[in-house]
């Protein structure tokens, strides 16, 4: 698949975005619900009445190009579950954040659900990971204030609640900050399509060999992900912190392929409001990985020489490791 360049589009728009970003702190979200409340500032304070907080469905202006995916930062603490729209993502990244907790980054290209959430804040290492995509739209609720100018200069389109008010709402069944939801069709003029997935992943028949595996658990300091093989569904059933992961509609979250990618996780320059240092997950470089598909585990090596390219997974003899068609989960584990 292709790679992306470092072209920055809409510098004047980015200047306005940076100004908006500077007003935000790390935000939050929650699970889907049928009742809605007006969008607020994430701390329960309603916004100024500058107009209706909900409006007619309309695309962003200018609309993202067809080859640009939608990327959404999704809350993953217990109070944010069950999530909404996670089953429609083509790709889900699981990353470590402050305090050893986890957060999800979901990438949407071939399907757009009606609602996604709860939406939460971005991190510095997200920017490196997103460089593999062409001009992605990043939906998030805020970030550490010293990081905001860096996000404003990044080669991506921001979709903040303050910028795209009609695309967001706050649910009334969960407390803030775990109740912010996105209506993706109010951001994108059309479904991006598979060409937007410039990840470097290859899909096709499984490689030779592999070890039969029924379950695999990946542990963070204060979170864990477990993947159990279902022969009936031909999927890896996802559990988080010991609880089966289901959507707000009751659908079990399941992946066709799971990648445990061992990476270097170091301290970043940033921290949360409690003083916890924000981890930085390095996704450029190389290392080892486990690829789970078809009820087997395959030893692999990963290579991503530059941020503007995708990640290749290969066997010991250099052959590409194909993924199974369907949703892919990538869990970044400490090397």
Automatic annotation (TrEMBL):
<dbReference type="InterPro" id="IPR021416">
    <property type="entry name" value="DUF3048_N"/>
</dbReference>
<feature type="signal peptide">
    <location>
        <begin position="1"/>
        <end position="32"/>
    </location>
</feature>
<keyword id="KW-0732">Signal</keyword>
<feature type="region of interest" description="Disordered">
    <location>
        <begin position="34"/>
        <end position="67"/>
    </location>
</feature>
<dbReference type="Pfam" id="PF17479">
    <property type="entry name" value="DUF3048_C"/>
</dbReference>
<dbReference type="InterPro" id="IPR023158">
    <property type="entry name" value="YerB-like_sf"/>
</dbReference>
<dbReference type="Pfam" id="PF11258">
    <property type="entry name" value="DUF3048"/>
</dbReference>
<dbReference type="InterPro" id="IPR035328">
    <property type="entry name" value="DUF3048_C"/>
</dbReference>
<protein>
    <submittedName>
        <fullName>DUF3048 domain-containing protein</fullName>
    </submittedName>
</protein>
<feature type="compositionally biased region" description="Low complexity">
    <location>
        <begin position="56"/>
        <end position="67"/>
    </location>
</feature>
<feature type="domain" description="DUF3048">
    <location>
        <begin position="65"/>
        <end position="193"/>
    </location>
</feature>
<feature type="domain" description="DUF3048">
    <location>
        <begin position="217"/>
        <end position="330"/>
    </location>
</feature>
